[in-house]
Amino acid sequence: MAKQNGASVFGRWLRRRGNGVFYWLFYGHLWIALAAAGLTWLSLHRSFGAEHASGYPVVCTVVFCATLGVYTLHRYLSFFRAKQLLTARRYGLVRRHPQICLLVGAGSLALALVLGADDYAAAWPWLLLALPMTVFYLTPPWPGWRRLRDLPYVKVIWVAGAWAIMTVALPGAVLATVAGREQTEAMLSGQFGLEFLVRFLFVLAVALLFDLRDVELDRAQGVRTVANAAPGVHRWLTYGALTASGVLGLLTGLPRVADLVLGLVYLAMLPVARLTYARVSEDWYAVVVNGLLLAPPVVYALCLQLGIAG
């Protein structure tokens, strides 16, 4: 009997720890920060190859910390400003641990600023674009004005634009400066523009899927999105963005096998997108839909590990 009680106590302890890990990984924005760092590495490797790989860890860490900080503070501010859905699972950590969430958010941003201090000269033009999009997405630029997320139909544009800047343009500009003039010219070539476009379209598709989760909240706040105003158009935009990402990936990947596989990864997400239209669970969005962002770098890294590079 004592052994059974001990096993029961251990089982409850394990479940609590498991639930804690699950919440912090998927609702504490570690999952999405990993995706941002992975997409940054993907862009750098496709642009510069293995020659300048020594500079990748710092840049990817900065993007990881910046993403973790921004998304954590975003959720923190949303919780204290929202009047609806405060019991939703996405607000669970802020509801139970507000001080810790504030510390994680502010601390991560501070660490990103410290680690990226040497690269401000190369990064500042892109930061001038990304920072206003990030700050004013949730905070009005002027009292009485709308937040960027409240503007009709364009909420997903800000998200896709910020991700394309932070995971393609900004890290590319930093590494191009480190690599020298030849790489700077390469970053301004058509290949770089296509990488930026593919990333924008890919994140746009994922952001459109997240609008399905937020239909109730957006309606309650008077925000018009394609998801709550034109569901049919929303479906075709999502499918179209993923298809365009895949086709462009395949075209730009010729004749490199790893890049061709990457294009197929985007197309393989279409069934997941279709399933998302029938899902209402927040866990589906936190784990699977956010996981779509991590799929391209993971598959690409696996190809390189297996020797499928050219």
Distinctive features:
310 residues, mainly alpha, 15 helices, 79% helix, disordered N terminus
Would you spell out the secondary-structure blueprint of this structure?
Blueprint: H1 2-27, H2 30-48, H3 56-81, H4 92-96, H5 98-115, H6 120-138, H7 155-179, H8 181-187, H9 190-213, H10 215-220, H11 226-229, H12 231-253, H13 257-268, H14 270-276, H15 282-305
Helix pairs in contact: 2-3, 2-7, 2-15, 3-5, 3-7, 6-7, 7-8, 7-9, 9-12, 9-15, 12-13, 13-15
Characterise the protein shown here.
This is Prenyltransferase. Keywords: Membrane, Transmembrane, Transmembrane helix. The chain crosses the membrane at residues 21-44, 56-77, 98-117, 123-144, 156-176, 196-215, 236-254, 260-277, 284-308. By secondary structure, the chain is mostly helical. It is built from 15 helices and no strands. It has helices at 2-27, 30-48, 56-81, 92-96, 98-115, 120-138, 155-179, 181-187, 190-213, 215-220, 226-229, 231-253, 257-268, 270-276, 282-305. The chain is globular and about 50 Å long. The model is unreliable at 1-7 (pLDDT under 50).
